[in-house]
């Protein structure tokens, strides 16, 4: 895939492309290792395509846009913070005391 085409993709489409290229590269590596791969140049092409896609993702991240993975982490963090705020008014339980401490 051309770099211009990669830059035109939305963030979710770019992350899907990266995932697809990683799976393709894994399959090509296995095929090469088992001797089933006839077009060994495809291995290098896929590796370069993956590098291009990762470069575009990194450029976006450095420009201030979130990477797809960072966006997922932020959403999870926001959800956890929201959930924690809902439980602030709940009564706190005292920590369980050791049985030996209760006997003395």
Topology summary:
Layout (H helix, E strand, L loop, with lengths): L2 H6 L2 H23 L7 H22 L5 H19 L12 H5 L1
Structural class: mainly alpha
- Main sheet: strands, sense, barrel: none
The whole-angstrom Rg is: 24 Å
Proportion of strand residues: under 5%
Give the overall form. Answer: elongated
What top-tier CATH class of the domain at 1-71 fits best? Answer: Mainly Alpha
- Flag low-confidence runs: none
Q: What would the average pLDDT be, to the nearest integer?
A: 82
Number of strands: 0
Question: What does this protein look like?
Answer:
- It is a single chain.
- The protein has helices at residues 3-8, 11-33, 41-62, 68-86, 99-103.
- It is mostly helical.
- The protein has a domain at 1-71: Helix Hairpins (Orthogonal Bundle), CATH 1.10.287.310.
- Helix 2 (11-33) runs antiparallel to helix 3 (41-62).
- It is elongated, with a radius of gyration of 24 Å.
Task: Please describe the structure with a list of short key phrases separated by commas or semicolons.
104 residues, mainly alpha, Helix Hairpins, elongated
Write a brief caption for the model.
The chain has helices at 3-8, 11-33, 41-62, 68-86, 99-103. With 104 residues, it is mainly alpha-helical.
